[in-house]
Every structure is written in C-alpha cells, then in structure tokens.
Amino acid sequence: MDETWLVAGRERRYDAGMSTAALSEPDLARLLERTSRTFALAIPLLEAPLARQVGVAYLLFRVADELEDAPLWGRDRRAAALASFVRWLDGDPAEADDWLALVASEPPTRDAGCLELLARAPDVLATARAMDGLAGAAIVAHTRRTALGMAEFVARQDERGGITLSNVDDLRRYAYVVAGIVGELLTELFAVADPRAADARPALDADAAAFGEGLQLVNILKDASADAREGRAYLPADVPRSAIAELARASLARAERYVRTLGEARAARGVVMFCELPVRLAVATLDALDAGAPKLGREEALAIVAAVSSRR
Description:
The protein is mainly alpha-helical. It has helices at 25-35, 38-42, 50-69, 75-89, 95-105, 112-119, 121-129, 135-154, 168-193, 195-199, 201-222, 224-229, 241-264, 269-290, 298-309; strands at 2-7, 10-15, 163-164, 232-233. A hairpin with a 2-residue loop joins β1 (2-7) and β2.
C-alpha cells in the first residue's frame, strides 16, 4: 500500500512497511498542542518521565477517540477502524494497514492537527512500547479497554453515526468508557512514578473513575447542542438537564477528593496541580452553564490556569 496524506499543509508518505520510531520531545509537544487544550496546558506541570508518559497516553487515547467520533464517517467505517485498531494494539502490525488505510482513503475529520496525529499513530504506539517498566504496558492496555468500550457504543449507532443514550446508567457507562478509564490509567501511572501516590492507591482507586466521569459529564453538558446537530444525543431525553448537572457535581466532588488525597499523601506537586487544573476548570464551566452562559469565559479560564500554575 502507498498512500499520500496531506497533513498540516505538507505531504506525508505512508506505506505498510514504513519504520516507526519513538517520538522526539518536540514532536510530542507539537502533537499535544495541535490536538488538546487543557492537557497541553497541564502536562508541562508534570516532571519527567511522567510528563512524557501522560502525553503519550493522551495521544493514544485521542487516536481511539478520533476513530469513534469521526464526524465524516458513518457507523460501519467507525466500527471497522476501531476493530482493526484494537487488533493493532494487540501486536499485529499488519492491522495498521487496515485502519490507517481507511483513514487515508477517506479522512474521518477535516481537523489538520488530528489528521497529523492519526498519521503519526505508529510512532505514538512505538513510543509507548519503548517505555521502561510498567508504564507503556499500562498505556496500551487501558487504551485497548476504552477502544473496545467505544466499539460497543458505535455498534448501537444508526448508519450515519447518530446515537441516543437511553438513561442515566447508559450515560454513566459512556462517560466511564471515554473518560473514567483515563482516570484509572492516570492513577496507575502516578503510582508507578511516585511511591507516595502508590501508598495512597486504595483511596485514589476509589475516586479514579469519578475523576474522569465528572470532566466528561461537563463536556457533554457544554457540547449538547453541537452534538445534537450531528445526531448524537448523550443526554437522555426523559432526564432533566438539571439532574445531569447534579450528577456531574457529585462526580466532581469526588474528583476534588481525589486531588486532596494526592495532596495529603504528599504526592509530587506537579501531579497534584495536573489533576487540580482540569477539575477547577470543569467546576467553573458547570457554574457558567448553570448561570446560562454557553461556556466558561476565556479570561476566567486563564485566571484559573495562572492560579494553579503559579504554585509550581
């Protein structure tokens, strides 16, 4: 196979036999800046090697997310790509031919940054597999879990990719798949990197999934109108929006407890700030939504980032 991709204004060649290499620090930073908002701000708060581990984890999860979300694809192409992606994570290099060929022949998105990430996915996986110790294996294993969970929801979509979640349990299951698992992975990475976090592991594990769930529920509330225009109804029709907001607040309260647990355990300052930043932004966003604003204002968001970062 020999495909030409137009990525970020330049051509990039892809073929099945191309070699892969661990991402350089500049390449990792570039991909994070082009595909994330909060994470690109928060990851530099972490020390090495944890910053690199979390950055690579974010990118690999983001690849799965792009295949699941895929605004230019319908259900069947999303399902085929995710199934191939899981087999590729399992260690079959030939599977890169299948899902990368789908991406190359019909891009799933028009976002140039995301297309660049998809093109560099073999390098992202190579970077994870090259890591010493347990971190790389954990990143791949948890990405596999989320991709399998995403595939369950893609299978329920209509042909054009629309989906309706039926009740609160359904919504919470979706939030767990796409974000709760992230909280569990982060907890594992923190424990591997820091004996103090490892000592607090039981308490952290109790709130890890809620940490991710709270952030995701706020995103779902914030993006509900845009999602509806694309045929995705994540908010159950017979559940008041206020009830989902209360669920989000309950999850965020547990996320705040997660941050306190890290602090009380005297975990690395960067880890505490890394977790505190998205939680504070999510709480402020939920406050803004409850007040009738469409999202958190830029100035308030920047003030929160500055307040957290200044304690480094």
